[in-house]
Amino acid sequence: MIHQNPTPVDTIEFNGHVIHVKRDDLQHPHFSGNKARKLHYLLTTDQSHISTLVGYGSAQANSLLSLAALAKAKSWGLEYYVDHIPGYLKQHPRGNYRQALELGAEIISIGDQRGDLGMQGFIEQQILPERDDVLFVPEGGRSPLAETGIKRLADEIRVWASEQQVDELKIMLPSGTGTTALYLQKHLPFEVLTCACVGDSHYLTEQFNQLSDDSHHHPKILTGDKKYHFGKPYREFYQIWHQLHQHTGIEFELLYDPLGWLLLLDYLNEQQQKAGPAILYIHQGGLLGNASMLPRYRRKGLT
Ligand SMILES: *Cc1c(COP(=O)(O)O)cnc(C)c1O
Predict the structure, then answer these.
(1) Mutate to test the pocket of ligand 1, among 23, 67, 175 (most ligand atoms within 8 A of CB)
(2) Residue 285 near ligand 1, beta carbon < 6 Å
(3) What is the distance between the alpha carbons of residues 291 and 285, in angstroms, rounded to a whole number?
(4) Which of 125, 231, 252, 258 holds its CA 20 to 30 A away from the CA of 175?
């Protein structure tokens, strides 16, 4: 069962800072973190006219697994389109890819069939027409449909803060599409901090604008000196991930969290005042992805 209770908050001490961690990773192994929040609306409302969910993205994406879990829970099929499936993954299925296959997902590699069309354009023009029983979810769940579930997360945070008598709070979470961070900022009276894991801050701002042109809803984007490419393994990413695991007992994920933590720590170290606002880091799940990321770190000798 996918549980509907508020997720717990742990308080950890790391590198001399006290940080609260919202354990959104603990919702369900297949349906956790922000993807579960984004799909919450679809999970809990009647969608009986739908028989197939259509999505796209990378063959290792956290959203693939969540879409597969949603489809399974609703007895829908899932058609998930990818540009290609890496050879090593095909030979040794693991992580999100493997679990999604086990949940019945159909993962369709379209190779160069889409020509100059973007994946979304290809699906809209070639896959969706004349099928009225399909529901298309854009990559990473970047959709206004996500707002309902993320507002619930905001409500949980507000209740927690009031129970803990925390008046001054900053929220930190790393972004892909920025959907989660933006809707959190829209529904919270606290400042939301984020960072761009996919593309740069300019790209992330464009993503924000697509969901809301009200700049009050735009989270503050933390930046660092070094440019990282999404999905590439970096030694300092593994190091911070490993330190966090060892010192706090919490396993974070390897695509988004390392940059989120590195930039949060920089930000906290730059703050002059000793007793600043409380910090709440959102653990957005995605742990099954570690099963395919860790071997890549090991192969590169970065562990
Ligand atoms: C998808 C995902 C993100 C990015 O979420 P956005 O709402 O697209 O910004 C961050 N962390 C994890 C673990 C994710 O699975």
Answers:
(1) 175
(2) yes
(3) 13
(4) 125
- Are the CB atoms for 10 and 21 separated by under 8 Å? yes
The residues with which 55 forms a beta bridge, in sequence order, are 80
Average pLDDT of each block of 10 consecutive residues along the chain (303 residues)? 79 96 92 90 93 96 94 96 94 95 97 89 94 92 90 97 96 97 98 97 96 96 96 97 98 97 96 84 94 92 94
Q: How far apart are CA 199 and CA 202, in angstroms?
A: 8
Task: Please identify, by atom number, the ligand 1 atom nearest to the C-alpha of residue 285.
Answer: 13
State residue 75 phi and psi, 5-degree precision: 55, 40
Distance 166 CA to ligand 1 centre (A): 26
